[in-house]
Amino acid sequence: MQDEQGFPDTLPRPSWARPSWPLIPDDELTLALDAGLPGKAAAAIAKSAGKPAPAVDSGEARRAADDTVKATMMIRTYRVRGHLAANLDPLGLADRPMPADLTPDYHGLTDPNRTVYIGGLFGGIETVTVSELVEILRRNYCGHVGLEYMHINDVEERRFLQERFEGRDKEIQFTPEGKKAILNKLIEAEQFEKFLARKYVGTKRFGLEGGEAAIPALESIIKVGGANGVNEIVIGMPHRGRLNVLANVMRKPYRTIFFEFSGGSSNPEDIGGSGDVKYHLGASTDREFDNNKVHLSLAPNPSHLEAVNPVVLGKARATQRLKGLNVASPAWSDLQNQVLPVLLHGDAAFAGQGIVAECLGFSGVRGYSSGGTIHFIVNNQVGFTTSPAFARSSPYPSDVAKMVQAPIFHVYGDDPEAVTFATKVATEFRQKFHRDVVIDMWCYRRFGHNESDEPAFTQPLMYARIRDHKSVAALYGERLVAEAQVTADDIAAMEANFIARLEADFETASSFRADKADWFGGRWMGLHQPADPVTARRSADTGVAVEQLRALAYKLHTVPEGVTIHRTLERVVKAREATVLAGEGLDWATAESLAFATLVTEKPESYGVRLSGQDSGRGTFSQRHAVWVDQNSGQKYIPLNNLGGDFEVYDSPLSEFGVLGFEYGYAMADPKKLVLWEAQFGDFANGAQVIIDQFIAAGEAKWLRANGLVMLLPHGYEGQGPEHSSARLERYLQLCAEDNIQVANCTTPANYFHILRRQMLRPFRKPLIIMTPKSLLRHKRAVSSLAEMGEGSTFHRCLDDLAPADPAKIKRLILCSGKVYYDLADERDAKGRDDVYILRVEQLYPFPGDVLAEYVKRFPKLETVVWCQEEPKNAGSWSFVDPMIEEAIGQRAIYAGRAAAAATATGLARRHAAEQAKLILEALGEDKKAVRAAIRSSLKSSATKAA
């Protein structure tokens, strides 16, 4: 038996699935239930005072035990709620009174000098006075770091955090060198923003002012991660502070950024594309700390906040898997330790964007886990112009992360040591437990949402406070001067040296010219942009020897000994094998499985296949059966994994936005893998429109990031109502331009087989959107022969009519795409219309105008060209193909299809049948009397079926 992985997934069970019983020695409950507690407590207290121990059953012993329980409850309260009293807001605007249950009086400990026994429960301390205990608790839990972690079920994870926070000597400490390094990064962060403000007055840059502590914090993640096995970090972030991160963390040359500010591009001029604003761009670099090299990549992203999150997670997952390809028996824990995803967020976006919850939900799911993500919230305490009280219903923006039991570090943003300490512990936690973790850095936004805003319009009190508030660098510099770590002259010299460096780069920025783009390096080596025009035939040798197909089919349809599959599935498997042996009648699912099988066994270089969607294992329509479930044990068997190749199939979480973004990120990292996302029904992709618009359709033009993701969208009008008919084909066609994507609507299993293989075998990558069928999955005419997939066969952008035709007789040419072809052909054949030829346009973009022009030349007596579609006139292909057809043949086509409609389809069976009958006869050119008769007949037939 196998799982969905190509190799075993040793990801540990999530903490909420692991038992917390039996109790761990020395935890709160076991201490309170200890039968011998009175004697132990009294003896320990007496020993600390240098006195003899009282009798075990004395009143003093009982009081000591009672105080122990009270102290234990107070400790637990601080662990749970101490963060509520932490000093977090640099502006002092947040109303955070001391909760009553954090006082000793609340717990009945009224004597501050009373010594209590806590049995090593807290930081190894045996006995302590009440006042000392309160002091230590407040220092540990109510300082500049407020820790939320008691919602975590796993005792080991809680213990890990307690060991780093609890105890008499637990204070944030850095070496003199470490302090100077933090100060230096703060100076760079602050002076970089000030330099941009001076040189480019009024230009948007979405600066980091107020949140500069994020820069040394990110450096800490790189350094601590590198020391704990990380060799690659994938970063995603919004536009605020992005330029600072690019410059001071990613080490993007300052002069390149200055050149972009002047209107130039950091890519060569001959590359083309639209480009994007500078605070959306990505970068990659290598950093080294303590001889540990770490590769950093910052993903480009649009202004759609948080949309980049699933892309980063998918890219990280793919990178982890790639690192395991050449490792014998790799363990996921080892691979995930090497690649760390880091996501930066705004506070309002983290609380307000649903994609955040979708991505958190991936953290423990097989096939989507990337071993834990470090989330860093730059908490400005305002979202654009909206105050937190109006932006969320929870105390903190980070509360959504409790759904996956992530520990949360709330940090005072004006204390860069506290922020850096929090990232250090968070990174260590992620590396040990492979879990998501959140740092919530409370800070402020010195200017408006962008530098042209006036924030005092909406936050007058906050910005009155900000105007008088010193910068993070100034405050930390004063602190280090007071500690005698540096002098004021040292700080002035650091600032002057950095500004001089910026000035030097500014002077050379005008002469900067990029010499190369970075989009075809590494795993993408050998791939390139297509050299031929977008209208050209871009074929590939996608045919496979028939005997090889038969051999693969035998393996795919052999039920292993010891595996008991469902009786219905057994009949399906035998029937499919019979069609392959006969070489005729292969259905859609058989062709698909053969395409996958040939790719994972391709020679000389095999390709991986990753298929995901909400029901992709079985298939929404019970058509695929890529996963066989043993009827006795429930174990899974995946026939395609029996070929020795790299095949994955996952039934995904119930998400479109998150999962499609994840798969896009996966395909971005691994162009040697056919990555497919399948919608349960085509229009469910609506929920992922941001990924489609901003990444899939425009990512290459904006960011020079090619991608070969395939979207499988079930589409076809079978009377199933508005939500189960249309994949919104028109939306994808509207996005088509500049050779950005491919859109297809295949009608035969063979053509589907070839288009999947073509996606990998050509030396370039373009996203592919396929309208996949529903009723055609089992249609008796929508079948192919093995020869149509054999050697010499290929993908056809247009497919011939199935019926033989005399070109001299053809007067009417019907162009169509998808399922409607078979309805047209059946009606045409029934009426004996040998003057009608039906041409299937299988690839809609790039539009095959050259092929269409050749067909028109074949028919010397052609009078009329028709475009027929099932979709309403304002949907489907019509608006897109109308000018394309005219350009190709110099003649306008006639429209035959449904009238324009607000809903994609009717949900009434009789109306559907009438509409379908009408459009078919109109396409054939039947007179109005015949059309009306056909409509009456279809209405009567549908009514009889309903009865």
UniProtKB/TrEMBL annotation:
Homodimer. Part of the 2-oxoglutarate dehydrogenase (OGDH) complex composed of E1 (2-oxoglutarate dehydrogenase), E2 (dihydrolipoamide succinyltransferase) and E3 (dihydrolipoamide dehydrogenase); the complex contains multiple copies of the three enzymatic components (E1, E2 and E3). This is 2-oxoglutarate dehydrogenase E1 component. GO terms for biological process: tricarboxylic acid cycle. It holds the Pfam family E1_dh. It comes from the Bacteria. Residues 586-779 form the Transketolase-like pyrimidine-binding domain. One of its GO terms (molecular function) is oxoglutarate dehydrogenase (succinyl-transferring) activity. E1 component of the 2-oxoglutarate dehydrogenase (OGDH) complex which catalyzes the decarboxylation of 2-oxoglutarate, the first step in the conversion of 2-oxoglutarate to succinyl-CoA and CO(2). GO terms for cellular component: cytosol; oxoglutarate dehydrogenase complex. Keywords: Oxidoreductase, Thiamine pyrophosphate. Gene3D superfamilies: 3.40.50.12470, 3.40.50.970, Multifunctional 2-oxoglutarate metabolism enzyme, C-terminal domain, TPP helical domain. Its EC number is 1.2.4.2. Its cofactor is thiamine diphosphate. It comes from Sandaracinobacter neustonicus. InterPro entries: 2oxoglutarate_DH_E1, DH_E1, KGD_C_sf, ODO-1/KGD_C, THDP-binding, Transketolase-like_Pyr-bd.
